[in-house]
Amino acid sequence: MTKPLLALASVLMAAMVARAMAQTAPSGPVPASPPSSVTATGSTTPRATLKPAQRLLKVEELWDMDLVGPKGRTIGEIMDAVESTADLRQFVVIKYGSFLGIGGKEVAVPTANLAVDGGKVVLRNMDVAQLATLAEYNNDQHMYRELDETQRVSLAQQ
Known about the structure:
The protein has helices at 2-24, 59-63, 128-131; strands at residues 54-58, 66-68, 74-84, 90-96, 105-110, 114-117, 120-123, 144-146, 152-157. It is 20% helix and 31% strand. The chain is globular. It is of the alpha+beta class. Strands 1, 2, 3, 4, 5, 6, 7, 8 and 9 form a 9-stranded mixed beta sheet that branches. The protein has 3 helices and 9 strands, in the order αβαββββββαββ. The chain has a domain at 54-157: PRC-barrel domain (SH3 type barrels).
């Protein structure tokens, strides 16, 4: 009589442990990489997120860099760097669509849409067709302040 009672107790105990484990185990696969809300120090504070590496460049360094699209094709040249007088956001003024330096359109692209990859500046989060929808750069209303050649612009590092 004690053997069947011990067997029943073992089965009940195993069932309770399995049920407890099922309640605490995560459902679905466990992610291989840490979630984006984890910082390099291991904090899981929702406000602390990993940001792409940034690279500070002098404006004069930008002038010598090629401007390419996501596929590596040259799309224009960097003319200047400016910041908005309203909110101090930085922009890079680019000229694209010209032939042998003649014609083309100048637009101010937010630095968030640019990244540095070696010696090139890469247009990201937009393509050439989207550049065409931007208003032509014009500072007659003094909406921008030109950055001098020694000031720095922060771009994402690819």
